[in-house]
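## Example record

The block below lists the input lines for one assembly entry, exactly as stored, with component labels intact.
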Amino acid sequence: MEKLFWAFVIGGAICVIGQIMLDVFKLTPAHTTVILVVSGVILGGLGWYDPLIKFAGAGASVPISSFGNSLLKGAMKEYEGGGLVGVLTGIFDITSAGVSAAIIFAFIASLFFRPKG
Amino acid sequence: MAKKQRPTKAQQEYQEFVKTKEPKRSILKNCIWAFFVGGSICALGQIIMTIFIKYFNFNEKTASSPMVAVLIIISSLLTSLGVYDHLAQYAGAGTIVPITGFANTMTSAAIEHRSEGYVLGVGGNMFKLSGSVIVFGVFSAFVVAIIKILLMMLGVI
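Predicted structure tokens for the full assembly:
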């Protein structure tokens, strides 16, 4: 129950950061998500993102910044197991579920639905 | 040349009139919406994760992949039904920042371009909006990984 509360607060806080980027700095949604992903990679590189996930659970792993962190984590894990090539083979290791699911269901949706006015 | 012409008095008056009629979207209100909607999506993720841990023998680390997949399925479905974009009008970053926003951009691009055919339309445009996330994510992850590996080789970390 406590985890649920922190997931809500931290997840909401990351979205507020995104909203501030949209409203105050007048960035496009694409720029906002790109900045968040890159900051996820950098925070992951510094080793700060995993403690956040441990603390906030889905509050840290649902926002797009976790995508960056997972890309880096997959690359580093494969590097430790298989050397330098691991950076290339491992980069989508953890994020594969998300990317594949998004492609598959986007395609299925395009089979059955028409654009809404 | 038309662009450089100074607006006439009537035009200026009209612009001011429009400004008074425009709905004021205050930053604070947007942030509150983003906080509650974004927070709710993350809380939903946490609930899904708890279900996977309790009933499907996942642990804290392995439960996040199926949780993300379930959120993406929900988001794709809501996008197809036109509900997600309706919510996004109010929630702004609250619907863009979570991973569901990523699925939303892909699904809406896929549906929007289906009239151009499945190969060129759906296949070619699916990553039109979300591609930038993958490109910059992968490239920055590569750069950071190389820096980290170099530092490890030099014995700094």
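Chain A touches chain B through 73 residues (CB under 8 Å). The CA atoms of residues 20 and 26 of chain A lie 9 Å apart.
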